[in-house]
Amino acid sequence: MAADEPVAEVLESPTERDRPAPPGPADAEPAPWASALANLDQARTYWLATVRPSGRPHSVPVLAVVVDGAAHFCANESSRKARNLAADPHCVLTASGESLDMVVEGAAVPVTDPTAVRGVAAAYAATYGWAPEERGGALWADGAPTAGPPPYRVFRVEPTTVLGFPTDDSTVPTRWRF
């Protein structure tokens, strides 16, 4: 998601230090970032949480794709999620991966560069069979019920912290700090 490799650490709260170790291999190391990114990329169900101007939370399902190591989603500018992000870009994107459930905390940054938008369009076509085209730094296509009508503004989630919770015994809960 960022050019630099994040700092990975086993997720542990101070109240858990006297409890038995979480499920996972004994003496497990934090999950590698490459594994987390692969889980985020192969997920098909994503939820985006934003904050309304009143301070109330707003959460909706979105179609997301990973391009150049970053999660991207799109929305019509008049949608509630886009209006929330215009007022406050902080967000949380969650996804269930094959071996990690992911929580990506960060900020949604608009992407308008035509080359970058075309890359996101190609990822949507490869991942979901939805083939939007880039026009004027936005995506245009029919059939995006969670994004509203076109045009769709593309957002890249710039993470500050990512949490990974294992769905099997292959690793332990991990936090990546950017």
From TrEMBL:
What is the recorded name of this protein?
Answer: Nitroimidazol reductase NimA-like FMN-containing flavoprotein (Pyridoxamine 5'-phosphate oxidase superfamily)
Segment Disordered: which positions?
Answer: 1-31
Q: Which GO terms describe its molecular function?
A: coenzyme F420 binding; oxidoreductase activity, acting on the CH-CH group of donors
- Which organism's genome codes for this protein? Lipingzhangella halophila
Keywords attached to this Swiss-Prot or TrEMBL record, sorted alphabetically, are: Oxidoreductase
| Residue ranges occupied by any Pyridoxamine 5'-phosphate oxidase N-terminal domain in the UniProt entry | 38-162
Q: Which domain of life is it from?
A: Bacteria
Q: What is the lineage of its organism?
A: Bacteria, Bacillati, Actinomycetota, Actinomycetes, Streptosporangiales
Q: Which SUPFAM superfamilies match?
A: FMN-binding split barrel (SSF50475)
One Pfam family named in its UniProt record? PNPOx_N
* InterPro entries found in the cross-reference section: F420H2_bilvrd_red/Heme_oxyg (IPR052019), Pyridox_Oxase_N (IPR011576), Split_barrel_FMN-bd (IPR012349)
Name the GO cellular-component terms. Answer: cytosol
Positions in coiled-coil regions:
none
